[in-house]
Amino acid sequence: MCSFISIQIVATGICRTDDHVLKGSFPNIDYPVIPGHEGAGIVESIGEGVTCVKPGEKVIPLCLPQCGECSSCLNPDTNCCLKTHLYESQNLMPDKTSRFTCKGKAIHHFLWISTFSEYTVMPDSAIARIDDDAPLDKVCLFGCGFSTGYGAAINTAKVEPGSTCAVFGLGGVGLSAVMGCKAAGASRIFAIDINKDKFSLAKELGATDCLNPQDFKKPIQEVITEMSNGGVDFAIECIGNVAVMKAALECTMVGWGTCTIVGVALSGQSIPVSPMQLIMGKKINATFFGGWKSVDSVPKLVSDYMAKKFSLDALVTYTLPFDKINDAFDFMYEGKSNRTVLVF
Ligand code: PAD
Ligand code: ZN
Ligand code: ZN
């Protein structure tokens, strides 16, 4: 049986995945839908059987559940709980109802979360109870962008001390991956973007070489292979562009290089990988939510943030009232923001 929690959303970030929903390129979405999946809020009320939180407590609703019972939850090597939207549609609550209506018409949920709403309802398998002092307009980024990028480097790529890394795409997710590579002890971090305005923050966060592919006549994978004397140990794609995913694999070192995919490609696209790349010993993997077991890990990430083990404040370019949501999307399209956080 599933138990439900009503949450007052206080702050929500905007992630490129929300734009995929708006553009119709995220798989298996029913419309009309309320997007938003990077939020933080306060428990408003709890349903029968809820034991993990009480009204008034601060929480982060999770885009990836951790039911604690399925074979994936019981396996330490994966975070892909079988209740996730990868396996089961989450446009409706687990009891197949919608909790949103507009003018009498039902509106769909997005991954159960729908943080572009003042109130939302979540099943208790997808809630992280967090520190009472946590600033919700910052820690909302643990709901997606920061956790995904940082975890992609630490948990999925498993970046090693002294290694060479390349991070493609310097939005909120890619900059968090740069921070993860740095925290893991990488000695050289290439940061690649077609928007040079991203480079100063990337350098502040740990990038050693910032490259714009448009500045070179050769393909970027050849440039990086030459600059790194044969290829990088770890490449992380944080854009969602299948041609860049191919380039990321190709710039890794023959024998052991690993390419980690984070970006969500348009529905129906696939990566044009030559099997020869894999025969040469390169590896390719991908991350969902940075490999974190969500319910267990997000409270710990928030505690580490409160203990100043890392800072994600620099990722928040703008904090705006919720009714400026269209401006916030424009900042993302124009490359002017890493993250905009909207507050209710
Ligand atoms: P964003 O749009 O803020 O950042 C993308 C960055 O890539 C921007 O700085 C662009 O300028 C840059 N860029 C675009 N095209 C190119 C190119 N051809 N070469 C180099 N740079 C380029 O997005 P985001 O950081 O919010 O999200 C990044 C991706 O990660 C996106 O596809 C999103 O859907 C995905 C994502 N995946 C997960 C997951 O669990 N796997 C979670 C969250 C987001
Ligand atoms: Zn996201
Ligand atoms: Zn599970």
From TrEMBL:
- Which residue ranges does the record assign to the Alcohol dehydrogenase-like C-terminal domain? 172-296
User: Record's SUPFAM superfamilies?
Assistant: GroES-like, NAD(P)-binding Rossmann-fold domains
Question: Which residue numbers delimit the Alcohol dehydrogenase-like N-terminal domain?
Answer: 6-131
Q: Which GO terms describe its biological process?
A: formaldehyde catabolic process
Name its co-factor(s).
Zn(2+)
Report the superkingdom from the record. Answer: Eukaryota
Question: A single GO molecular function, which one?
Answer: zinc ion binding
An annotated GO cellular component of this protein is: cytosol
Entry's InterPro entries?
A: ADH-like_C, ADH-like_N, ADH_Zn_CS, GroES-like_sf, NAD(P)-bd_dom_sf
Any Pfam family the entry gives? ADH_zinc_N
The UniProt keyword set, sorted, is: Metal-binding, NAD, Oxidoreductase, Zinc
The UniProt family comment states: Belongs to the zinc-containing alcohol dehydrogenase family.
List the protein's name.
Answer: Enoyl reductase (ER) domain-containing protein
Organism per entry: Gopherus agassizii
Traced from the root, the source organism's taxonomic lineage reads: Eukaryota, Metazoa, Chordata, Craniata, Vertebrata
